[in-house]
């Protein structure tokens, strides 16, 4: 179980890192031109960058806290926060009629829920 949780955590952290870097450092206009980035045309640049920073923090919270043995309780907390973020992403993409992206966000949500469940229940980090 521990190995499966680490693999899921690594995958989700990679997703968060990729999304965070693009939203934080790529201009909003370029994001709007990419498939799935059309929602950025309707929001401010500060909002997009804020989401990017949150995703970067999520990547760090998912992996670094446990790997370094510092506040490992943040892993399930971060995973729970990620499920909320993905619920918002699903609503946003759903309103735009982007069903494929809704399903992708649902997969990320499920991965985060698995991590939260696993780290809060059957395979918590040792204190």
UniProtKB/TrEMBL annotation:
Its main location: membrane. Keywords: Membrane, Transmembrane, Transmembrane helix. The keyword S-adenosyl-L-methionine does not apply. Coiled coil: none annotated. Pfam families: DoxX_2. InterPro entries: DoxX. It is a multi-pass membrane protein. The chain crosses the membrane at residues 56-89, 101-120. It comes from the Bacteria. It is found in: Membrane. The keyword Membrane applies. This is DoxX family protein. The lineage of its organism: Bacteria, Bacillati, Actinomycetota, Actinomycetes, Kitasatosporales.
């Amino acid at each position: 179980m521990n190995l499966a949780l680490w693999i899921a955590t690594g995958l989700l952290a990679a997703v968060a890192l990729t999304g965070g870097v693009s939203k934080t450092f790529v201009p909003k206009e370029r994001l709007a031109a990419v498939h799935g980035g059309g929602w950025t045309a309707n929001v401010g640049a500060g909002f997009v960058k804020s989401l990017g920073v949150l995703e970067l923090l999520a990547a760090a919270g998912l992996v670094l806290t446990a790997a370094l043995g510092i506040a490992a309780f943040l892993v399930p907390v971060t995973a729970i926060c990620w499920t909320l973020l993905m619920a918002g992403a699903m609503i946003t993409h759903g309103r735009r009629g982007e069903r494929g992206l809704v399903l992708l966000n649902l997969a990320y949500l499920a991965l985060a829920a698995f991590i939260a469940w696993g780290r809060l229940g059957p395979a918590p980090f040792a204190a």
